[in-house]
């Protein structure tokens, strides 16, 4: 464990990130050791390096300052998810930033998911904007661009000895990606071809990685059937159906029931594995979030083809970038919501 800590400190210095604490904690007992295989219990922490650059600190329940990924690991998480943008204006979440975070995760023994947005900025249900450099490309050229970008990013990871277990080709693509050419309700074939281009590129670099097609609103079975029926009819390739789920205090029980039913339907209908790639609730509803996560993970884990659950940016606090669905309180400590990750073990 001391060797792993030394490697992590070295990594932080190399990427220009100040470690969260310089105190000697050698007298503090080692944290519990959690299984890093089986059911994935993870978090997307793509904002992390940007937060650290802004001097945001993270603390455990006792108020001890800690490096964030180490803290999440000690809370029972075994996986990290990281997004990558093509050419973001401020540089955050570009390839080099991705590598810095991915290397740190791997040194901690965390499993890794890479989330390709195929955009210079957010790709989500409301926007799937093509990168500026791809703006005027034909559909065939877009397929080539998707393949080239995917291979270049993954090859850069491979050259650093970093191996992702899962790779998303697109983010929350309930109506396709790379609009308008890849908009599913305009041309399902184009979207299917772009998805397959990403799939093939992933397998060329990491043949064992599982490729995820990720949609929003995991409770909406009708949307999932429409989209994946269309992909199947157009010979698209994928390994895992990924979902997002963001309930409220009032809707979490109903939405959890609907999402579990949807996962079972996707397994039966397409033979696919499934995964919750994003979940979240308001940070100040921690007891409810704990109940939600415990039930969701318990029921998901009972599904043999469900691979895991990832919380989206739990470390975001004090409305970082306007986001209020994290799971840390205003003092930078994890709320009781995250206790569910240690409770639901392999």
What does this structure look like?
With 346 residues, this protein is an alpha/beta fold. 38% of the residues lie in helices and 14% in strands. It has 10 helices and 8 strands. It has helices at residues 2-14, 48-53, 68-74, 95-107, 139-159, 188-205, 221-233, 252-270, 286-301, 339-343, and strands spanning 40-44, 79-84, 111-116, 166-169, 210-215, 240-245, 273-279, 306-312. α5 links the parallel β3 and β4 (166-169).
CATH class: Alpha Beta
CATH fold description: TIM Barrel
Second CATH tier, the architecture: Alpha-Beta Barrel
Nearest-integer average pLDDT: 92
Q: Total helix count?
A: 10
Radius of gyration: 19 Å
* Secondary-structure class: alpha/beta
The biggest beta sheet is recorded as:
8 strands, parallel, barrel
Strand content: 5-15%
What order do the strands of the largest sheet run in, or round the barrel if closed? 1-2-3-4-5-6-7-8
Helix content: 25-40%
Say which CATH homologous superfamily is assigned: Glycosidases
Give the CA-CA distance, first to last residue.
21 Å
Give the domain tally.
1
Indicate the low-confidence ranges by residue numbers: 1-29
Spatial shape:
globular
How many beta-strand runs? 8
Keywords:
346 residues, alpha/beta, 8 strands, 38% helix, globular, TIM Barrel
Question: How are the elements arranged and paired?
Answer:
Blueprint (H helix, E strand, L loop, with lengths): L1 H13 L25 E5 L3 H6 L14 H7 L4 E6 L10 H13 L3 E6 L22 H21 L6 E4 L18 H18 L4 E6 L5 H13 L6 E6 L6 H19 L2 E7 L6 H16 L4 E7 L26 H5 L3
Helix pairs in contact: 1-4, 5-6, 6-7, 7-8, 8-9
């Amino acid at each position: 464990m001391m060797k792993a800590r030394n490697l992590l400190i070295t990594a932080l210095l190399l990427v220009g990130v100040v470690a969260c604490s310089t105190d000697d904690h050698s007298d503090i007992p080692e944290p519990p050791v959690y299984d890093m295989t089986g059911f994935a219990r993870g978090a997307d922490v793509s904002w992390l390096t940007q937060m650290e650059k802004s001097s945001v600190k993270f603390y455990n329940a006792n108020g001890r300052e800690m490096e964030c990924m180490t803290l999440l690991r000690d809370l029972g998480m075994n996986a990290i998810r990281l997004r990558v943008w093509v050419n973001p204006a401020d540089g955050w979440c570009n390839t080099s930033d991705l590598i810095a975070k991915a290397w740190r995760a791997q040194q901690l023994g965390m499993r890794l998911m890479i989330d390709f947005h195929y955009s210079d900025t957010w790709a989500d249900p409301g926007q799937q904007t093509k990168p500026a450099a791809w703006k005027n490309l034909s559909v065939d050229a877009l397929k080539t661009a998707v393949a080239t970008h995917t291979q270049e990013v993954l090859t850069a990871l491979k050259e650093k000895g970093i191996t992702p277990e899962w790779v998303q080709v697109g983010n929350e693509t309930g109506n396709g990606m790379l609009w308008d050419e890849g908009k599913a309700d305009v041309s399902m074939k184009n979207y299917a071809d772009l998805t397959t281009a990403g799939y093939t590129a992933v397998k060329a670099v990491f043949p064992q990685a599982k490729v995820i097609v990720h949609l929003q609103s995991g409770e909406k079975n009708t949307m999932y059937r429409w989209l994946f029926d269309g992909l199947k009819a157009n010979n698209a390739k994928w390994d895992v159906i990924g979902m997002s789920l963001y309930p409220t205090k009032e809707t979490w029980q109903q939405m959890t029931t609907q999402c579990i039913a949807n996962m079972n339907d996707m397994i039966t209908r397409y033979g696919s594995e499934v995964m919750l790639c994003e979940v979240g609730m308001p940070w100040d509803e921690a007891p409810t979030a704990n109940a939600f996560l415990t039930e969701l993970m318990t029921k998901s884990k009972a599904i043999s083809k469900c691979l895991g659950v990832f919380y989206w940016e739990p470390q975001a606090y004090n409305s970082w970038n306007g986001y209020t669905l994290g799971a840390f309180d205003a003092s930078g400590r994890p709320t009781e919501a995250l206790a569910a990750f240690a409770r639901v073990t392999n």
